[in-house]
Amino acid sequence: MSNLPKGGGFLFGQTNPQDIFSPEDFTDEHQMIYTMTMGFVTDNVLSKMDELEAKKEGLNRELLQAAGELGLNGADIPEEYGGMELDKISIAIIAECMGRSGSFAMTHGGQTGIGSMPIVMFGTHEQKKKYLPGIVTAEKIGAYALTEPGAGTDALSIKTKAVLSRDGKHYILNGTKQFITNSAMADIFIVYAKIDGDKFTAFIVDGDSEGLSTGAEEHKMGIKGSSTQSVIFDDVKVPVENLLFEIGRGHVVAFNILNLGRYKLAANALGNAKFALELSATYANERKQFGTSIANFGLIKEKLAEMAIKTYVVESMVYRTGGLLEDIMHSLDTSGDDGGQVAAKGIEEYALECSINKVFATEVLGYVVDEGVQIHGGYGFSSEYTIERLYRDARIYRIFEGTNEINRVLVPTTLLRRAAKGDLPLEEAIEKLKGEIAGGILVREGEDGLVQAAKDVFLLTMGAGLAKYGKELVKQQEILGRLADLAIRAFAIESAWLRAQKAVANEGGAKAKLKQSMAMAYINSTIGLLEYSAKETMTALAEGEELANHLENLQKLTQYTIRDTVALRQKIAAAISETGKYEV
């Protein structure tokens, strides 16, 4: 593990383009999984979307069972328990393809992610043997019961209680959970409760337990085809052998599961964004106004190009992160009884990147579907057109698996915590940068220079924050949010450029031209946003001579010559219109 990049380490050094994973590195097996999963979604889910949205009885279970026959429910589950135990790239591919399946992506995610991964990572051999084979085939449906009416983001404040029975054979659960996916049909619930009112603990609860009931279906804005209900526990007896992991350490289970969940959600968002772009490009080609296709209008071209650019950046980030996760899995020995916990610890190394992916991908999805509706005009507001559903479905992505606000706070606070432990050279990097700035203006030439500038802008702004607040910086959410945006965009900028550079080296400049154009357009149109955000943040951190010094240093970091992004977008739009879909 010592040779692997540290989580968050991208901010403190340069990465060789050949060291990242990108979709161009898909193996034949990866391509086969992509084709198979896309075929399943198109033939089995999209063809039945009206019935799914109308909550046809038994359809979700039927679809999960069909997915199980193809092995799509067991990608993360060891072969010993009936699963496929695929690599992390394959898992991202499945999540991406499932993204375009609308509400079924939530049903499937509840089954294969939060509804089963706690058992995979933290269950005993007996628990895995009892529950996981049924998850793989969808004979058993899983659900995850953490959120409560008064405890969403603040998960540790849950009120559900567990008390050991007098004979010591059961825990008695009482409480209510809210917004629980798959609740109407779940056979297995991962439930969090406080033993004796204070020890936050995870349990596996059978769906047919006496005293367990569910409320009415929630009437949701989007993802209407998935089941979302409250779950009530009224003196529910849970066998002591169904306690998951350790008493008082349910937070370890919950937070580790969220890391992988956030990463998969980013992949879901990527699949959705590609679908929205495909629908929009096709519509723009077919729709005629003033005697020509609206795809020929400049402002429509800009929309299609920007949708494609941002989708390319998300794709670059998601598979770069997938490569990191896969590499760390290869470095670990997960063969022992605690193999799942070892894997969880490995994934935790890149918790920061998982949060970055989740925030960026879900907000890009929001942008892409919004522009998709705009391209469709009045028809985009009609439920007869698929883009209307995509628009509604996309909104929840910024809320679940930890709101984007909490994930933003996690990015800089994780960096600060790891730096305090000596895992990341944050203060050293800030001091080194100050020395370089003192030496004169740092002129940034080309995109390589702008990638470094993005990281340096973050470091300079973080330094200003630490100078004012020190350890108390973790309490300043407005500043943390802006620092997060700087770090997120730095990762986005670098990921897009590294992928383009790798493609140029491996495929040649002509074949990689579109990737290079997308990366250039994104970097050149984003660096100014970073500069403005840094200025705004520094103005909140200092005043007078100190502020003037901060702003002067920032100006020294952001001397560059911008490219013609309008021309770049015109070329990108032409390529998208020609194929009618996202294809780089």
Task: Walk me through the structure.
This protein has 584 residues and is of the alpha/beta class. The chain folds into four domains: 9-141, Acyl-CoA dehydrogenase/oxidase, N-terminal domain (Butyryl-Coa Dehydrogenase, subunit A, domain 1), CATH 1.10.540.10; 144-244, Beta Barrel (Butyryl-CoA Dehydrogenase, subunit A, domain 2); 250-403, Up-down Bundle (Butyryl-CoA Dehydrogenase, subunit A, domain 3); 406-579, Butyryl-CoA Dehydrogenase, subunit A, domain 3. Helix content is 57%, strand content 10%. It is built from 19 helices and twelve strands. It has helices spanning 28-45, 49-53, 59-69, 88-99, 103-114, 117-122, 125-137, 250-286, 298-330, 339-348, 351-376, 386-394, 404-420, 426-438, 446-469, 477-507, 513-541, 544-557, 565-579; strands at residues 142-145, 161-164, 170-181, 188-195, 199-206, 212-214, 228-239, 243-244, 288-289, 292-293, 443-444, 559-560. The strands form three sheets. Strands 1, 2, 3, 4, 5, 6, 7 and 8 form an eight-stranded mixed sheet that branches. Strands 9-10 form a two-stranded antiparallel sheet. Strand 4 and strand 5 (199-206) form a beta hairpin. The radius of gyration is 24 Å and the shape is globular.
